[in-house]
UniProtKB/TrEMBL annotation:
SUPFAM superfamilies per record: PurM C-terminal domain-like (SSF56042), PurM N-terminal domain-like (SSF55326)
Tagged with keyword Ligase: yes
Residue span, PurM-like C-terminal domain: 175-336
Pathway it works in: Purine metabolism; IMP biosynthesis via de novo pathway; 5-amino-1-(5-phospho-D-ribosyl)imidazole from N(2)-formyl-N(1)-(5-phospho-D-ribosyl)glycinamide: step 2/2
GO biological process, any: 'de novo' IMP biosynthetic process
NCBIfam families in alphabetical order: purM
Name used for this protein in its record: Phosphoribosylformylglycinamidine cyclo-ligase
A Gene Ontology cellular-component term: cytosol
Length: 364
């Protein structure tokens, strides 16, 4: 009997090859604050870059991309998953007004395929570069016997910084504030267990073609998650004080996520008629025999980020976002007057926040 790591199914040489393949894309995210390059036991980031802050607060977030990886694995397309991962993590950090500084990733797989791992990390690095985030480290772990040879999962964590006086959140929200919606690029990275269930029930494969989706099903579903961080940071700098709160629409849907950033005692009704959910949502609902409204607690339905802004700044914020390639529109207003809150989402994920309800019918 051979007692070795290789005999147990772990190929350390393949891991080294993966690191070599990803080094250039990772290094491209490094500015002068990053020390030590790629391959150290820990990433180093020079915190003296923060000395001009009066009271710097560090913000951190961690996440994955859920079961969307199953579709990437089925189609053997892996770089888009990296974009999804960065968006899920970094766009949470910008919600408090923070600028992302650096990120690390973790990839668990059944077998290290160097080119595949490098493709995943290349996608992560591309999205990090697009959001001004340094990719300072990561880990690839081989789990033979626990994960199948072609299975993998990804996770990441990032750290950002915000001046204490500039933190966004419920405390800034006021009666009469306007809720601005920002368009999603599609499903983003939430609700894929429902997507997979619908397709399996209808016996539709990821390689099948659906003209309604513009071609191969899996490719439509792998549309990368939109990155809002860079445009939002520009808007915050260009229009100081205009934005009071931000909400990243992820698990739980539009109403629940907005409720998390509204103050207790406030409420907002969002007009479904102010936007038309993209085709992918309509096709999936038709396949399931369900209404768009029935999926509001699962999918973003075309809204990936929400901003609560001062009423006299709404048009300026929309113009600033759209000039940076982010479609945006007024979806509702915040009120603190007495109101019947029957049917409203009130707070979410342990946050005792405001109340939100979607009203009306979606635009066609």
């Amino acid at each position: 009997m051979t007692n070795s790591y290789a005999a147990a199914g772990v190929d350390t040489a393949a891991g080294d090859r993966a690191v070599e393949l990803m080094k250039a894309s990772v290094a491209a995210t490094h500015g002068r604050e990053v020390l030590g390059g790629v391959g150290g036991f820990a990433g180093l980031w020079d915190a003296s870059a923060l000395r001009d802050y009066r009271r710097p607060l560090l913000a951190t977030s961690t996440d994955g991309v859920g079961t969307k990886v199953a579709i990437a694995q089925a189609l053997d397309i892996h770089d888009t998953i990296g974009h999804d991962l960065v968006a899920m993590v970094v766009d949470d950090i910008v919600v408090v007004g923070a600028k992302p500084l650096f990120m690390t990733d973790y990839i668990a797989c059944g077998t290290v395929h160097p080119e595949r791992i490098a493709a995943i990390v290349r996608g992560i690095a591309e999205a990090c570069a697009a959001t001004g985030t340094a990719l300072v480290g990561g880990e690839t772990a081989e789990h033979p016997g626990l994960l199948g040879p072609d299975d993998y999962d990804v996770a990441g964590a990032a750290v950002g910084v915000v001046e204490a006086d500039d933190v966004l959140g419920p405390e800034r929200v006021q009666h009469g504030d306007v809720v601005i919606a920002m368009a999603s690029s599609g499903l983003h990275s939430n609700g894929f267990s429902l997507v997979r269930h619908i397709l399996a029930t209808k016996k539709i494969g990821y390689h099948d073609e659906l003209p309604e989706l513009g071609g191969v099903v899996g490719r439509a579903l792998l549309e990368p998650t939109a990155l809002y961080t860079a445009p939002l940071l520009d808007v915050l700098a260009e229009l100081p004080g205009a934005v009071h709160a931000l909400s990243h629409v992820t698990g739980g849907g539009i109403a629940a996520n907005l409720a998390r950033v509204l103050p207790v005692g406030s409420w907002a009704e969002l007009d479904r008629g102010s936007w038309s959910p993209p085709t992918v949502f309509r096709v999936l609902c038709e396949l399931a025999g369900d209404s768009l409204e029935s999926t509001e607690g699962t999918w973003n339905l075309g809204v990936g980020m929400l901003a609560v802004v001062a009423h006299d700044s709404a048009s300026s914020v929309i113009r600033a976002l759209e000039s940076r390639g982010v479609p945006a529109w007024v979806a509702g207003r915040v009120s603190t007057t007495a109101h019947d809150l029957t049917g409203f989402e009130q707070g979410a994920k342990g946050v005792d926040g405001g109340a939100v309800k979607l009203v009306g019918a979606y635009a066609t």
